[in-house]
Specification:
- With about 250 residues, the protein is an all-beta fold.
- Among the domains are: about 40 residues, no CATH class; about 100 residues, Immunoglobulin-like (Sandwich).
- The strands form 7 sheets. Strands 6, 7, 8, 11, 12 and 13 form a 6-stranded antiparallel β-sheet that branches. A 5-stranded antiparallel β-sheet has the order 3-4-10-9-5, with no helix packed on it. Strands 16-15-17 form a 3-stranded antiparallel β-sheet, with no helix packed on it.
- β11 and β12 form a beta hairpin.
């Protein structure tokens, strides 16, 4: 029997069995043929495809905004965006876990997922990440975890070039660094990054960071500009935003 050209469903027919030496020389047997639609291809994570969403490099730290590269994360041409906070653990049928812990996701395309790693993950080890799409599950792909590894967002979102840095002037005005806008002595820089690691107090990944109390990174942050140490007045999560640090 060939299922070619048949729609999904059950098909019934009769098979006639004949034996001239049997007492009942002809027997009819009812048979059922079930045609199922082909299951969707499972999602696949590219080897080494779990990186910081700012620098597109690894390793990564708890609370980092990450980009996960691979295939079959959603239907071709789909771009799924979370339009509410907190970010969901399932977006359009696609979800992510790391070491069995659910991960908030905020962008899903066929070849890339942007998500935020939970806080409190084990560090100085490799942890498995799995992508599930409906009932299809990817093979685990390991990612190296460290306590902190800052990476600065860039203005062109490529991980290269000018950083996402705001220049705050003493008069209260501000500019985005670059394009003729330069910092001078007395200005304050707001540097937007990810990968500062766990915070005190600890928050929940995917939820907007609070302004009171401020969520300070546990690991101390130092800054140099042109090789000169610069005092840091705050290092932690940006209030009202999940995952972004400054």
């Amino acid at each position: 029997m060939s299922p070619s050209g048949l729609a999904a469903g059950d098909y019934y027919g009769l098979i006639q069995v004949a034996s001239p030496d049997a007492s009942s020389q002809i027997q009819l047997v009812t048979v059922r043929l079930t045609i199922q639609t082909a299951g969707e291809d499972p999602p696949q994570i590219t080897a080494g495809g779990i990186v910081s969403a700012a620098s597109y490099a690894g390793p990564v730290a708890p609370g980092t905004l990450v980009a996960i590269f691979g295939s079959n994360f959603t239907d071709p041409g789909n771009v799924l965006l979370s339009n509410s906070l907190p970010w969901p653990s399932n977006l359009g049928g696609t979800s992510v876990t790391i070491a069995g812990v659910t991960v908030p996701v905020f962008v899903v395309t066929p070849g890339q997922i942007n998500a935020m790693l939970p806080f409190g993950l084990a560090v100085n080890t490799d942890l498995p990440i799995i992508v599930t799409r409906n009932n299809a599950i990817s093979a685990p792909q390991s990612v190296s975890m460290v306590s902190a590894l800052p990476s600065v967002f860039t203005q062109n979102q490529s991980g290269q070039g000018l950083g996402a840095i705001i220049i705050l002037h003493p008069d209260g005005s501000w500019n985005l660094a670059g394009n003729g806008n330069s910092a001078t002595a007395g200005d304050t820089l707001e540097i937007y990054c990810t990968g500062l690691g766990d915070t005190n107090p600890r928050t929940v990944a995917g939820f907007p960071a609070t302004a009171s109390p401020l969520l300070w990174a546990i690991d101390k942050v130092t800054l140099t500009v042109g090789g000169v140490n610069v005092p840091v007045s705050f290092y932690g999560l940006t209030p009202a935003w999940p995952g972004s640090s400054r």
